[in-house]
Recover the amino acids of this structure.
């Protein structure tokens, strides 16, 4: 559904959310394979540490929830690079939110980060890709966006929005020569996942998750999800009538 990538040498990849976890692991794997990588996130010191001894890496700190900071970073990036081949929007956060102990402020700020932040990136990256008539954008949603789970009220709703958003992006942008990737990890052992109070079936390392993500991009897939034994179980559950879905999802997630 997207173009295949047979090597990363000289490819210019901007990873937003690259200071830890899946984004940092992607950055390191891409640098190892000869890509030029711009790493963004809020923690400048972590980004600079990852860039140390990496001549092809560039640290571009930003807060994704701040529209003007994303614009300034994209302008700075274009002063260094003449084009962008791939933007990976990995940044996001997790906080348990439940309907029986609802915290409006926590839910709103999680959605501002996980959805609003992606829209901020889209606003500044979309014109660059359209001008080029080439390149790609990958957005990390989550297997939690496939259907409702108990305890993930705001997180799941935000990730479901990203799943829908990437489908629209594909329909709108692919005819202009732009590749779009919807990336849905299952449970990955990272700082973000430390806040999960769900069972961790089929848990992956950040490095394996990054490998699966880049493999899907290289193959030109639109829908990249892993580990398959977990994500496919959730996708199958989605096809069931709701009575059966609610029963099964409690078994899979453990609450
Ligand atoms: N771990 C899982 O089980 C799992 C499962 C499915 C999907 N995901 C998704 O995968 C993505 C990466 O998460 P992860 O598990 O690798 O967790 P992580 O290690 O906590 O990484 C999150 C990244 O997002 C950045 N970030 C957070 N808030 C930001 C902000 N306001 N502006 C800019 N960057 C920000 C963080 O950097 P700074 O703190 O330096 O800003 C960090 O680089 C997230 O979108 C998450 O929802 C994770």
């Amino acid at each position: 559904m997207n173009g295949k990538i047979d090597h990363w040498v000289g490819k210019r990849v901007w990873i937003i959310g690259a200071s830890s976890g899946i984004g940092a692991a992607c950055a390191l794997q891409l640098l190892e394979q000869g890509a030029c990588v711009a790493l963004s996130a809020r923690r400048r010191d972590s980004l600079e540490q990852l860039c140390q001894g990496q001549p092809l890496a560039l640290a571009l700190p930003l807060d994704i929830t701040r529209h003007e900071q994303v614009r300034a970073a994209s302008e700075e990036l274009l002063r260094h690079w003449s084009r962008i081949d791939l933007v990976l929007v990995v940044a996001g956060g997790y906080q348990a939110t439940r309907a029986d102990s609802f915290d409006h402020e926590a839910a709103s700020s999680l959605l501002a980060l996980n959805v609003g932040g992606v829209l901020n990136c889209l606003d500044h990256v979309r014109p660059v890709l359209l001008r080029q008539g080439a390149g790609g954008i990958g957005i990390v949603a989550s297997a939690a966006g496939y259907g409702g789970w108990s305890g993930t009220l705001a997180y799941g709703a935000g990730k479901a929005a990203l799943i829908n958003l990437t489908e629209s992006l594909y329909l709108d942008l692919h005819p202009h020569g732009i590749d779009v990737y919807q990336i849905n990890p299952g449970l990955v052992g990272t700082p973000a996942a430390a806040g999960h109070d769900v069972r961790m079936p089929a848990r992956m390392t950040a490095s394996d998750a990054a490998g699966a993500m880049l493999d899907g991009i290289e193959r030109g897939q639109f829908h990249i999800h892993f580990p398959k034994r977990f994500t496919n179980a959730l996708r199958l559950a989605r096809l069931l009538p709701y009575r059966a879905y609610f029963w099964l999802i409690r078994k899979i997630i453990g609450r």
Remarks:
- The radius of gyration is 18 Å.
- The chain has a mean pLDDT of 95.
